[in-house]
Amino acid sequence: MRKRAWCLFLILAAVALGGCNLFGPSGPQLLYEERFSQAEGNSWFVGGGETYRFWIADGKYHYESQPEEWHAVKNSAAGQFEDFELKVDVEHITGIETKTALYIMFRIVDWNNYYRFMVSPTGTFRLEKRVAGTWTTLKGWTAHDAIHTGPGTNRVAVKASGSQLTFFVNGEQVYQTTDDSLVGGQIGVGCGSYAENTTLHATFDNIEVWSLP
Fold first, then answer.
1. Is residue 19 scored above 60 in pLDDT?
2. What is the mean pLDDT of the segment spanning 112-121?
């Protein structure tokens, strides 16, 4: 009888401990998020120059520029991340599709050292890194059916685990590679407008950084 009662006590204790989660989180944890619900007091850059600008409106982070303009923003307030998954909604509103690129940046040490993963409204993606100020193409422009074409939104993500980098668009894996040039840093977003483009207008939203399981 005592043995049976002792076994029952152990089972109940294990259930209670599991419910209290005393051993820590069991899955990915949300490390950072930004919904751009308000402009005032937001840590993302707002401003620009004669040919481009960033602003927050309607719950989104907007970018607008003239042709042959490339601009990006990194957010030091978001924190530093090494192994993580970054997810961002990127939306193409106006601009010639073949002359436009929207991208996320990660493991940003400074403006001379970072990765950027680009998507185009033509349904293609591209991966580059900048190390000590020198650009290297890790994957040239490549078509993938997961990428929505034309004006609209794509949910872009990168999972960085050590040297392994895995990229997703709209929940589907589109590319995976290994590169150990950069191990950690900040996150950011950006846009590029090639020559002969019209005015480019894009937005970013629902930025999330998750821990890895």
1. no
2. 98
Residue 1: C-alpha distances to residues 12, 14, 140 (Å): 17, 20, 71
Domain coordinates in residue numbering, the chain: 29-210
Question: Please, are residues 171 and 155 in contact by the beta-carbon 8 Å criterion?
Answer: yes
d(CA 114, CA 105): 7
Task: Assess if CATH 2.130.10.10 describes domain 29-210.
Answer: no
Whether this prediction's pTM lies above 0.90 is answered by no
> Burial of 134 by CB count in 10 Å (0-12 exposed, 13-18 middle, 19+ buried)?
exposed
Share of the chain above pLDDT 90, in %: 86
Query: If phi over 0 gives left and psi between -120 and 50 gives alpha, with beta otherwise, what is residue 21?
Result: left
Question: What is the per-residue pLDDT across 20-73, written as a single tens digit (0 to 9) for each?
Answer: 444 556 799 999 999 999 999 999 999 999 999 999 999 999 999 999 999 999
What's the 3-state SS for the chain? CHHHHHHHHHHHHHHHHHHHCCCCCCCCCEEEEECCCCCCCCCCCCEECCCEEEEEECCEEEEEECCCCEEEEEEHHHCCECCEEEEEEEEEEECCHHHEEEEEEEEEEECCEEEEEEEECCCEEEEEEEECCEEEEEEEEEECCCCCCCCEEEEEEEEEECCEEEEEECCEEEEEEECCCCCCEEEEEEEEECCCCCCEEEEEEEEEEECCC
- What spatial distance separates the first Cα and last Cα of the chain, rounded to whole Å? 42
